[in-house]
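FORM 12-B: Structure-to-Sequence Request
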């Protein structure tokens, strides 16, 4: 399996956990039937297909990503789900969108626009605003929190703190206005109005199916499985006891296991 295939499988598994929150966020947008939208940073097209379903057969969604491998996989997913006529995919950079002004009714960007010391959010957002028509909207969606270790709140808090310090898209970011929970300010600075924000929850609870167990195990490793240098020996050992499938204390074996994750949606309208 290639690196691209492995990453695509991780995205597919992650989608099992987050899809209820994604669908709720898309429903809250009340996208007009028959509209034309742009999914920036579409990856393998999982969100693109959900958006296409939301606007119906007379609408169209364009997915944009830097990776030609992801674009190819997205096309395969679209054909598999009989949505190839409602979506299209192309390579491109969100800071230099390859589209004319006023080309779309809305832009969706999920878990993609992450400011860092070298990349401010405003250039990309100005591009998003440029390509939507007056009255159109820009929607930014972010995985904003999770509670995955019921019964171990202090351990989970320390794991999350270590992740926040070390994650590639947060490491070295010390400007509070660059935090994703400040996204309404980015939208305002880009000239959008009628700003709103809302958070959606996806719940997971026992009994867990095999795919859900795989998805949660992968998520444990994605967030915390590489943090040994940032943790005490005691916390690292406890993480392994709780989050490794071969452990007798594996937390997913609890008959009353419950977890949740949240996605936060920030949107604004182009009035003129």
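FORM 12-B RESPONSE
SEQUENCE OUT:
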């Amino acid at each position: 399996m290639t690196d691209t295939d492995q990453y695509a499988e991780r995205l597919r598994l992650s989608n099992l956990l987050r899809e209820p929150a994604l669908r709720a966020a898309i429903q809250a947008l009340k996208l007009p039937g028959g509209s034309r939208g742009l999914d920036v940073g579409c990856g393998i097209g999982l969100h693109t297909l959900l958006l296409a379903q939301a606007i119906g057969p007379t609408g169209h969604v364009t997915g944009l990503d830097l990776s030609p491998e992801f674009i190819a996989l997205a096309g395969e997913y679209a054909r598999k789900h009989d949505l190839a006529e409602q979506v299209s995919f192309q390579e491109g950079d969100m800071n230099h969108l390859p589209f004319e002004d006023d080309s779309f009714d809305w832009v969706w960007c999920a878990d993609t626009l992450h400011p860092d010391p070298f990349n401010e959010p405003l250039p990309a957002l100005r591009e998003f605003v440029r390509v939507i028509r007056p009255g159109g909207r820009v929607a930014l969606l972010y995985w904003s929190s999770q509670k995955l270790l019921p019964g171990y709140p202090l351990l989970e808090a320390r794991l999350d703190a270590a992740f926040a310090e070390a994650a590639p898209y947060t490491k070295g970011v010390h400007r509070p206005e660059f935090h994703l929970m400040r996204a309404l300010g980015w939208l305002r600075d880009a000239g959008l109005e009628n700003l709103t924000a809302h958070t959606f929850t996806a719940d997971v609870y026992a009994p867990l199916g095999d795919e859900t167990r795989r998805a949660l195990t992968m998520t444990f490793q994605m967030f915390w499985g590489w943090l040994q240098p940032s943790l005490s020996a005691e916390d690292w050992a406890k993480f392994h006891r709780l989050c490794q499938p071969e452990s007798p204390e594996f937390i997913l074996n609890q008959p009353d296991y419950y977890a949740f994750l949240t996605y936060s949606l920030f949107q604004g309208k182009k009035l003129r």
